[in-house]
Amino acid sequence: YAPQLDPENTGFIGVETFASLVHSHELPLDPAKLDMLVALAQGNDEGQVCYQELVDLISSKRSSSFKRAIANGQRALPRDVLLDETGLGFYKRFVRYVAYEILPCEMDRRWYFYQHRTCPPPVFMAAVTLTQIIVFLCYGARLNKWVLQTYHPEYMKSPLVYHPGHRARAWRFLTYMFMHVGLEQLGFNALLQLMIGVPLEMVHGILRISFLYLAGVLAGSLTVSITDMRAPLVGGSGGVYALCSAHLANVVM
């Protein structure tokens, strides 16, 4: 259909031309995708869409079309809001919850909801949380101590704990995030990582969220290394604070 859509080979396609072609040939195009196409065209003065954007939309690629939809997120879709969707399964309801929790505009929410794919899953925050729990259980069973573990001499001998006196061992600037003082600290961090980190990772991807989380962890150890030369540092609170700060913009908007 390329000659019919773009006979002058300009690289742009009129939405009305495409919509009439869809209806005349009864093509099985998802109505939600047609809505997205119309919304993208509203951001163009001539009501046109780039041919590559059309290809990405039809093939469900989350590339230039998604970025442009985000950039023009103030547009409203000519359909009801996502909350009116009925008959959804548990997972799709969860995806809708994530859309409303993370994305501030209805256009962005609908785009994410219909373009979301289960692969790759949000494995980073789940893997970090699971590792933290396993490490805590191992040290708790080994030391027979489940609260204030940093007061135990054997605990401080761990190669994971960060202490300013061990700054030469560079891995400690990050590995301290797997150690925790007690159940309260572990439970608080794990809860926030799963409640905030997983939705953020679902929307923004593993690379961005892993970089954000690790940057927060590194910032915590670097800060302690210059502000308190005596205190050991354990816990993933630095990464949790980074996640909370990233989510703060969504809350404000």
Number of helices: 13
Mean pLDDT: 76
What value does the Rg take, in angstroms? 24 Å
Q: What is the helix content?
A: 55-70%
Order of SSEs, N→C?
HEHHEHHHHHHHHHH
**Biggest sheet, in brief?**
2 strands, antiparallel
Measure the end-to-end span: 41 Å
Extract low-pLDDT stretches.
62-66, 73-79
Strand segment count: 2
Indicate the structural class: mainly alpha
- Going by CATH, the homologous superfamily of the largest domain would be Rhomboid-like
Name the strands of the widest sheet in spatial order. Answer: 1-2
Residue fraction in strands: under 5%
- By CATH, the architecture of the largest domain is named Up-down Bundle
State the shape: elongated
**Oligomerization:** single chain
Number of domains: 3
Q: Kindly report the CATH topology of the largest domain.
A: Rhomboid-like fold
Organism: Sakesphorus luctuosus
Subcellular location: Membrane
Family: Belongs to the peptidase S54 family.
Catalytic activity: Cleaves type-1 transmembrane domains using a catalytic dyad composed of serine and histidine that are contributed by different transmembrane domains
